[in-house]
Amino acid sequence: MKLKPIQLFAVSLLPLLLYSCAATKPLAPVKTEVDIPKLIQPVSNIDVPVTVDLKSYIVQAENSVPTKYSDNQQPCEGLRYFYTFTRTPFTITGSNNVVNLKFIGSYGFNVSYCAKCSSLFSSGPQCVVPVVSA
């Protein structure tokens, strides 16, 4: 059997085509150690203007804090005292990021000391020695 030149060319080209379809394995890349430069991030500032209506909070604070405090202990024998503290209404002011709360208070007290009491009196116990007061 005699092959024609075209058939001969096709038969000789067929092994070349089949070999060229084989999978190729690429070479592994060469490992190199290179320092990656660090990025320097610039400092950023964000201004967010905030306004708050504080009137309801001021009224709530004023109503929740008593304007007058007082107490007393009046035993017949021993230390007796009475004190009172009175404040003015709150004044709240602010500027930038500072809030100021201001009030004026006055304080008063009375102190006395009885060394010895007696219950022999018809009106009830009374101090039988002079009372020291301040």
Helix content: 10-25%
Note the main sheet: 4 strands, antiparallel
User: Strand fraction band?
Assistant: 25-35%
**Strand and helix order:** HHEEEEEEEE
Strand order of the largest sheet: 1-2-5-8
Mean pLDDT: 85
From the helix content, strand content and strand pairing, which structural class follows? alpha+beta
Global morphology: rod-shaped
Overview of the molecule:
The longest helix is centred in the N-terminal third of the chain and has 16 residues, at 5-20. Helix content is 19%, strand content 31%. The protein has a domain at 54-134. β3 and β4 (98-102) form a beta hairpin. It has 2 helices and 8 strands; from the N terminus they run ααββββββββ. The chain has helices at 5-20, 55-64, and strands spanning 68-73, 78-87, 91-95, 98-102, 105-114, 117-118, 126-127, 132-133. The protein is α+β, with helices and mostly antiparallel strands and 134 residues long. 1% of the residues are buried. The mean pLDDT is 85. The strands form 3 sheets. Strands 1-2-5-8 form a 4-stranded antiparallel β-sheet, with no helix packed on it. Strands 3-4 form a two-stranded antiparallel ribbon. A two-stranded antiparallel ribbon has the order 6-7.
